[in-house]
Design brief:
This protein is an all-alpha fold and 136 residues long. The protein has six helices and no strands. Helix 4 runs antiparallel to helix 5. It starts with a helix and ends in a 5-residue tail after the last helix. 26% of the residues are buried.
């Protein structure tokens, strides 16, 4: 019985944290840096990437499906996640095109915050090799 109570409390804590982070994530995705490269909205993008990573970790730790508050936030969280990934992709493209090391560093920090640094670097290398910018 005691283990059930602990499991229930853990689920409540995870759900509360998920809801709080989901609201912050949605705000970060809605207000985040439009235009001007990664450095213009870099702080917002890095913050949003960290929040996205935290949401993904909470989802991996606990099965919160069927909890009405969590289920109600799922579409907004998915939309925010897609928005953040899109902004990161745009920031990376802009940093590489303009050869701006500051914007590239911010973009790579975002990718690292999301746990996608190696995939991001591999993608950049594929794009760069595909355009013939690096010698083999």
């Amino acid at each position: 019985m005691r283990s059930n109570v602990h499991a229930c409390l853990a689920l409540v804590r995870s759900s509360q944290r998920y809801i709080a982070v989901a609201h912050k994530l949605r705000e970060a995705a809605d207000t985040g840096g439009g235009g001007g490269g990664a450095s213009a909205g870099g702080t917002d993008l890095v913050r949003a990437a960290r929040l996205l990573r935290e949401i993904e970790e909470l989802q991996a730790q606990s099965d919160m499906t069927g909890i009405p508050f969590v289920d109600a936030l799922a579409p907004a969280v998915n939309h925010a996640a897609n928005t953040i990934r899109q902004r990161l992709s745009e920031a990376l493209r802009a940093a590489v095109s303009s050869l701006n090391p500051g914007d590239l560093a911010v973009s790579l920090q975002c990718a690292a915050s999301m746990g996608a640094l190696s995939r991001t670097v591999q993608g950049l290398l594929r794009i760069t090799y595909g355009r013939g910018k690096l010698d083999r």
